[in-house]
TrEMBL record:
Record's protein name: DUF4974 domain-containing protein
Positions of the Protein FecR C-terminal domain: 266-334
MF term (GO), any: sigma factor antagonist activity
Transmembrane segments: 96-115
Matches recorded under Pfam families: FecR (PF04773), FecR_C (PF16344)
Domain called FecR protein: residue spans: 124-220
Protein source organism: Spirosoma arboris
Keyword Membrane in record: yes
Protein keywords: Membrane, Transmembrane, Transmembrane helix
């Protein structure tokens, strides 16, 4: 049993550095499991991360220093006063030339490493059009990627305090709670990230907008507006949608698990327009759709359907909506079936 007075900020900082004893780790684990201490735990964790950030190379400074070095070389080589003897001058230029070549090679290697840092730092898992894929992460968490999606995972494993991944597309997450209470962060390119401990949720992040649905547990959504960040807490059943203008809408869905029905190749439509379905065709299968009459885009579809591939999906649209669909490679032409 821990003593409340024994859990201090200094002790937690020591813990984040990996320098606590086995008994201290057990005390911290028991203390952090209580909901009353969760907010304080993360407050101190964020303070620690702000005080001890991970090293990031300063490329601009390195380039400036390199150009300053080249200017010094040029200034020395063009100075007529540096001419004591022919032998000394020749040796000086040769030495500076070798240094210049070495510096150029080092800079090229440095810039190559910097520009390709995401390649060696992260491992990327991708799905093709019409494909889903389930990943098992090293911490015991499970991620299922929807079609045309990718997930970047640290190649050398998660850090001591944070488990960070990056999503493009759509995925369903089942995150395992760790004994050290590591945060799990899902970053996106749509100016928001999801922070959890251990829970189940779905994230959708594509060009037309984003959404987060929480099935179980508790998450925090961090929304970025330039230099400002807004944090929203989510409870099970919460659905938060964001458009491209960062306009946010929060609602409650009685069956949050239905938003991940695509994992079983199921499609659940509730008064879904053909316009929205065309977005789905493009995002999941890479198929562009054209209609002969704009009025067709307002037709709606309701029900639960199963389709294992794009051909089955197009067939159900034809049958249910009385449409005529012609496919030519990655394009489909939709018209009203007059028969």
């Amino acid at each position: 049993m821990y003593m409340k007075s024994a859990i201090t900020k200094d002790l937690l900082f020591t813990h984040f550095m990996g320098k606590t004893s086995a008994m201290q780790k057990q005390m911290i684990d028991e203390w952090a499991k209580e909901l009353a201490h969760e907010e304080l735990y993360y407050t101190w964790l964020e303070e620690y991360e702000a005080m001890y950030p991970e090293y990031e190379a300063n490329v601009d400074k390195a380039i400036d220093e390199y150009y300053f070095f080249l200017k010094k070389i040029k200034a020395v080589s063009n100075n007529p006063e540096v001419e004591s003897t022919t032998k000394v001058r020749t040796m000086g230029r040769s030495t500076w030339l070798r240094w210049s070549m070495a510096a150029s090679v080092i800079l090229c290697l440095f810039l190559t490493a910097w520009l390709t840092r995401n390649t060696w730092k992260y491992q990327t898992f991708q799905t093709a059009f019409g494909q889903t894929r389930t990943l098992h992460l090293e911490d015991g968490s499970q991620v299922t990627l929807n079609s045309n999606s990718s997930l970047k995972v640290p190649r050398w494993g998660f850090g001591q305090t944070t488990r960070q991944v990056f999503l493009e597309g759509e995925a369903s997450f089942s995150i395992k709670h760790t004994p050290t209470h590591q945060k799990f962060m899902v970053g996106t390119s749509n100016q928001f990230e999801v922070e959890v401990l251990g829970t189940e949720f779905t994230v959708f992040t594509r060009e037309r907008g984003s959404k987060v649905v929480l099935n179980k547990g508790k998450v925090q959504l961090h929304l970025h507006y330039g230099s400002q960040t807004r944090t929203m807490a989510m409870s099970p059943g919460d659905l938060i949608t964001m458009d491209n203008q960062n306009r946010i809408q929060k609602t409650v869905t009685p069956q949050p698990e239905l938003h991940a029905a695509w994992m079983g190749h199921r499609y659940i439509f509730k008064q879904t327009t053909l316009r929205e379905i065309n977005y789905l065709l493009y995002e999941n299968y890479g198929i562009s759709a054209e209609v002969d009459k704009k009025e067709l885009l307002d037709q709606t579809l309701s029900g639960t359907f199963t389709a294992d591939n794009v051909d089955e999906f197009l067939n159900l649209l034809e049958t249910v909506l009385d449409l005529h669909i012609t496919r030519q490679e990655n394009k489909v032409f939709i018209s009203q079936d007059n028969l």
